[in-house]
Amino acid sequence: xxxxxxxxxxxxxxxxxxxxxxxxxxxxxxxxxxxxxxxxxxxxxxxxxxxxxxxxxxxxxxxxxxxxxxxxxxxxxxxxxxxxxxxxxxxxxxxxxx
Length: 98
Description:
alpha+beta; 3 helices; 3-stranded antiparallel β-sheet; disordered N terminus
């Protein structure tokens, strides 16, 4: 795990899945394994939706705007929640920001 994570994500930085992560979906929820560390991670149905959308790298702004529209939710709240989750995922080597 890296200790040099930003406190927040630049909403225009592109989010990429990290290559050594394998994922599968079971009963609407994603299960992931980091092949380098051997650690497993799980996401609920909304986190799984986010993970699926990241199959194509995109910015936090695009990701949160799309999810806010699809879930009819407040875009600022979605962006804050996604940002927190993505920072945790980055800390575990699942995603990176460029």
